[in-house]
Amino acid sequence: MKNLLEKTFKLTENKTTIRKELLAGLITFLTMSYILIVNPSILSTTGMDKDALFTATALATIFATLMMALYAKLPIAQAPGMGLNAFFAFTICGVMGYSWQFALTAVFIEGIIFILLTFFNVRELIVKSIPKVLKDAIPVGIGLFITLIGLKNAGIVVSSPATLVALGDFSQHSVWIAFLGLIVTAVLFVRNINGSILIGIVVATIFGIILGDVTLPDTSIISTPPSIAPIFAQFEWDHILSFNMLVVVFTLLFVNLFDTVGTLIGVVSKAGLADEDGNFPQMKKALFSDALGTTVGSILGTSTITAYVESASGVASGGRTGLTSVSTAMMFILALFFAPLFLMVPAAATSPALIIVGLFMISSVAKINFSDMSEGLPAFLTIVFMPFTYSIAEGIVFGMLSFAFIKVCSGKHKDVSTTVYVIAILFLLKIILDASHIMTNAAG
């Protein structure tokens, strides 16, 4: 078995070990397992069966992550994307008034289009055309973004009508659970102890039990996964040629493409698997894994699949190959049958992992030449738009737009590739369509 894993994942060549890879996969699972709770909660507002959604979420995550593990051989997990599931539930089924079957059909069509774009190298071409300065900025923005997620999950940062964000209530146990986990994790890192992030999560969870915020399962921890029959392959073809279907599919394509691209570039760069231009040889395979994952996920009954930024926590713990993703997928398989046990880990206990990883990911900011306004401003906008808009995709949008406009207007149009021009035009059209849609709804 050891020789097979070595041959498959080239562990020695990637300077890693089986133990390190399995541990990294477990940590990735712990930092993203919240999706098993959140995704069914969001999508069930459309009328979909919540129990079936739990199983569909887990199965789609397992399939897509194994694709990334065995085909692309990258330490990146995939699951139904946050933001994309909200668009599915609250925009397509809410504001637009379509059924969840219509929304699933749109996701299926998006997946098929992505497979074709990947096959003809269009997605890879787009990724490779992203300017290097933005590739350096993307990990920084993602680092700040996931740090914000960690702080928010712990209640350290909360929303505020007056100031947008504010310091949380320190009388809440979740704040102290997170701080204890953060301190433990940091001290263990300083002492070069392997598995520091996992140990921090375990210690924080135990502290939560002591405080009474985490309750041990009082029933059997083993259960049979609910059936996905109520939502399996429930497609609706009545409106596939409508303008609204076109808008929905384009929006899903747009957000999924750049969320996935941003995550891939950020996580792979931190793993040291990308070249000096931010590219990596498994790019096409990674994008194909994402596209196929979305297509299969829609058949199973869940929203768009995307690469998960939480994978950075596993990379920070030493994950370097697809074996990390195999480990993560195995954890989700276990979660299907041991959900009460795995899901007892509170969000506050996983927050320190996200904060520590955020620290690691901002290091590439040193590569950016901020003295050159034509590169510094686009990089800056890429970085700040991600946490401030709560979207990796929006950071890339405004980074790319500002890069194209500033370069052209300052006489440096040769720095802008044809692909970047096309992307910038599509971004403008998307913004105009969104603005038009909002104005139409307001007028109505």
TrEMBL record:
<dbReference type="Pfam" id="PF00860">
    <property type="entry name" value="Xan_ur_permease"/>
</dbReference>
<dbReference type="GO" id="GO:0005886">
    <property type="term" value="C:plasma membrane"/>
</dbReference>
<dbReference type="GO" id="GO:0005345">
    <property type="term" value="F:purine nucleobase transmembrane transporter activity"/>
</dbReference>
<feature type="transmembrane region" description="Helical">
    <location>
        <begin position="52"/>
        <end position="71"/>
    </location>
</feature>
<feature type="transmembrane region" description="Helical">
    <location>
        <begin position="376"/>
        <end position="406"/>
    </location>
</feature>
<feature type="transmembrane region" description="Helical">
    <location>
        <begin position="197"/>
        <end position="216"/>
    </location>
</feature>
<dbReference type="InterPro" id="IPR026033">
    <property type="entry name" value="Azg-like_bact_archaea"/>
</dbReference>
<feature type="transmembrane region" description="Helical">
    <location>
        <begin position="83"/>
        <end position="100"/>
    </location>
</feature>
<keyword id="KW-0472">Membrane</keyword>
<feature type="transmembrane region" description="Helical">
    <location>
        <begin position="352"/>
        <end position="370"/>
    </location>
</feature>
<feature type="transmembrane region" description="Helical">
    <location>
        <begin position="21"/>
        <end position="40"/>
    </location>
</feature>
<dbReference type="InterPro" id="IPR006043">
    <property type="entry name" value="NCS2"/>
</dbReference>
<keyword id="KW-1133">Transmembrane helix</keyword>
<feature type="transmembrane region" description="Helical">
    <location>
        <begin position="321"/>
        <end position="345"/>
    </location>
</feature>
<dbReference type="InterPro" id="IPR045018">
    <property type="entry name" value="Azg-like"/>
</dbReference>
<keyword id="KW-0813">Transport</keyword>
<feature type="transmembrane region" description="Helical">
    <location>
        <begin position="418"/>
        <end position="439"/>
    </location>
</feature>
<feature type="transmembrane region" description="Helical">
    <location>
        <begin position="138"/>
        <end position="158"/>
    </location>
</feature>
<feature type="transmembrane region" description="Helical">
    <location>
        <begin position="287"/>
        <end position="309"/>
    </location>
</feature>
<feature type="transmembrane region" description="Helical">
    <location>
        <begin position="245"/>
        <end position="267"/>
    </location>
</feature>
<keyword id="KW-1003">Cell membrane</keyword>
<comment type="similarity">
    <text>Belongs to the nucleobase:cation symporter-2 (NCS2) (TC 2.A.40) family. Azg-like subfamily.</text>
</comment>
<protein>
    <recommendedName>
        <fullName>Xanthine/uracil/vitamin C permease</fullName>
    </recommendedName>
</protein>
<feature type="transmembrane region" description="Helical">
    <location>
        <begin position="106"/>
        <end position="126"/>
    </location>
</feature>
<feature type="transmembrane region" description="Helical">
    <location>
        <begin position="170"/>
        <end position="190"/>
    </location>
</feature>
<keyword id="KW-0812">Transmembrane</keyword>
